[in-house]
Predict the structure.
Amino acid sequence: MRKRLKTHNDPIKNLTAIREGYKNENDGHRNRLIVLMVRGFREFQNIKNVPREVAAFYTEAGIKTAGRSKPPNLLKEVMAYIAGATTESARKLADKRARVLRYLDEKGVAVEKMPRKIKHYGGIEKTYRRATRKSLPTGLGKSRDLSPVPSIKARHFGKTPNSENEEPRRHIRNDADTNISVCVELSTLEKLRAAKRGDILALSARRVDEKGALLRIVGLRDDDDDDWTK
């Protein structure tokens, strides 16, 4: 009887290969999901202005329109329908996807470019955060009220010498928080308030001395955003 040859088996390499396969499968799943979302959005565009088609869709999806205080959100219902969403959590996810697509449409992104744009922004969740963060309350307009905002904190590093002959002590850090006043337009302030706790934002400020303010904010962007809001 011939003996079977032993083959070298490297578990680490095997696990690495499995991990890559898993990652590719996840990426593929996400991409397919985005493509289907966008296809659903295209059909939404085809029927939204045709009452007969909208009514036919509501009948197919089992959505009752009689006796409602306001009409259904058609795009949300389309996203819920193609996902088979019936639970509250699933419908919330459908609403999130609808807001992502509406945000891209309002930005003027062509339908065929939406999947690439969502991927550029880092996926559905990050695009959603971007969409909700940049939504301003109506009626604000572009107010020129640049009242100082005293609640912004700044960190002060280093220690000021007590005399001209004393060398700065560069190894000592004073990490105490200090409140300063800044001037900021209301539209920019609303974007700051819309940011979630822990979000990383980049501010561009100019040193001023007006209305008791030390700084004037002249630009704001998300950490992953290429465009400054001014």
Summary: The first strand starts at residue 148 and ends at 155. Strands lie at 148-155, 177-183, 201-210, 213-222. The radius of gyration is 27 Å. Residues 135-152, 154-161, 226-230 have pLDDT under 50 and may be disordered.
